[in-house]
Amino acid sequence: MPTQAKAGKIEELTDKLSRASIAILVQTQGLSVKDMNDLRKKMRAAKVEFQIAKNTLLRIATERNKMAAVDKKIFNGQTAVAFGYEDEVAAAKAVTDYISTSKVAVLKSAILGGRSLTPQEIEGISKIKGGKDQAKAEVVGTLQGPLANTYGLLTAPLRDLCYVLQAHSEQLNSGTTAE
After folding, report:
1. Engineered SS bond to 62: which of 3, 31, 67, 140, CB 3.0-4.6 Å?
2. pTM of the complete model beyond 0.85
């Protein structure tokens, strides 16, 4: 039975996991206080909430959120969690940028859509140019192009017929007024 403080922490983590679009787990063991403050400052600038969490409490929070696809092996060692609420790509980019400059912090895993991601998958997400909105716009553009062409091809014969009829009508009207 968890203590009152732990139960409160579990509820807090459960709420944050349910609201977060991505939760990135980082091992920060060995970071100095100065480096940790620098990391927190960079996360705040990227609109990412960063906190240290106990593995057991984090595992219980994932279970309460019915995230059965999350690999339980990711909950080992010291764990800090970066919660990205708005843009998964921006959060992944902020964390991986810091990890690449730090010699101590290590990317462990992430939770996205109720399943765990590998560090390589997180790095792949962080390399998406322009962020989440740009990726959505590219998908829409990719779908819209062929649809617009198809629409143009299907409406071309009717449009051309209208032009021919209009030209013929103008020819008839100009012929009657001239006579």
Report:
1. 67
2. no
